[in-house]
What does this fold into?
Amino acid sequence: MNIIDRLFKRPRKSKDIAKERLQLVLVQDRFRLSPELLETLKNELIQVITRHVDVDRGGIEVELTHGATGDALIANIPLKRR
Amino acid sequence: MGETQIRGEGETLPDEIDTVHLKQEEPTMSGRVITITSGKGGVGKTTATANIAAALALRGHRVVAIDTDIGLRNLDVVMGLENRIVYDLVDVAEGQCRLRQALIKDKRLADLYLMPAAQTRDKSAVSPADMSRICDELRPQFDYILLDSPAGIELGFRNAIAPADEVLIVTTPEVAAVRDADRIIGLLEAEEKYDHKLIINRFKLGMVRRGDMLDTADVLEILAVELIGLVPEDEHIIISTNRGMPVILNHNSPAGQAFRNIAQRLTGEDVPFMVIKEASLWQRVQRLVRR
It folds into this structure.
């Protein structure tokens, strides 16, 4: 959302909504990765990692991204000091 | 920002095309097989096939357009040749006639031929092997062999892409069409048809400017494929199809100019995208305002 839209509280352009929806649905189409499967994957990932290091469970993020270099699964796992 | 007039390179030519004065290119008879497909139905494959074929023929190439949509044939009626069908693609595949007998010569444009689909059969009447065999037989006789694919991803689509050297994917700037185009691209890559390019059809500059339509950059970012054509929404297409005439012959038609440009790009010429220049200028203005 650009600053003009934010200043005047304009609703988002429909084409930006369309673009975002397309990017999300295409990742599912291409890799057969549903939101449910992603959730399961995230939980299993947390289980494995917490066996070896202390993590800040609340701060864990796992998401599918669509970038210039292609599609990727990105996990951010904040670690806690012992 | 004033409404930009979409004018093409041919605007100085009179409306009546004089084919003698157009640049005649040496026919090479290299026989490029180009399939036009989309996934989504109704986005403009048949219109694109008919007009790109006509534009190539107008430039002096020997062109055959083949309708592979068996059971739902439309290339014949869009080209205005529906009354001249004797034999069709299925007849050729089944050996009911010689290849030559199923080719309908367009009397208005030199060296443009149509092989129509059968109307009373279905997609199972031909196989990918049949299509490859037929195209191999046509290659020495033509510069360009254009295949109009049916919608979908089933046998009809597989028949149409089997012999393809290149594929043109037609989409519109809408969610469903782009999604289907993405699926098609995936299938093409799985079939090792790596030479594929995109035509964005039914583009509406006003809607793009208002943020109500995906722009070219959005679609290309999502599909990650090279663009070969940008065709604006144009009422002239309906009028031309009503008459059974190719819209490229109408110099008042922006879509006609766009299809002529696609034909030029296919022959290796670097033609700038006329509409896309306006869109990117608008984006630059927007970015200035945002800062």
